[in-house]
Design a protein that fits this description.
Blueprint: E1 2-7, E2 11-16, E3 21-26, H1 32-36, H2 39-48, H3 60-71
Antiparallel strand pairs: 1-2, 2-3
Helix pairs in contact: 2-3
């Protein structure tokens, strides 16, 4: 799992808990681990990172978009 660490002008940095290393994601990209998550995992990720998901966001794409907007 990738845990958000910090936002920079060039992109976001995440800590890969499995590989024990920093992963850099350039601006405009979604975290690689977010793409592989299912809806319940995405909702948990959002809750753990204090990201509010709109009530009308029911599809995976909509939830990813809401998360990505906050992380960018």
């Amino acid at each position: 799992m990738h845990v958000f660490m910090r936002k920079t002008a060039q992109g976001n940095e995440y800590w890969d808990t499995k590989e024990k290393k920093v992963v850099f994601v350039p601006v405009g990209s979604v975290s690689p681990s977010l793409e592989s998550m299912n809806i319940p995992q995405l909702k948990k990720y959002a809750a753990d990172n204090n990201i509010e998901i709109p009530a009308e966001a029911k599809k995976k794409e909509d939830i990813l978009k809401a998360i990505n907007e906050v992380l960018q």
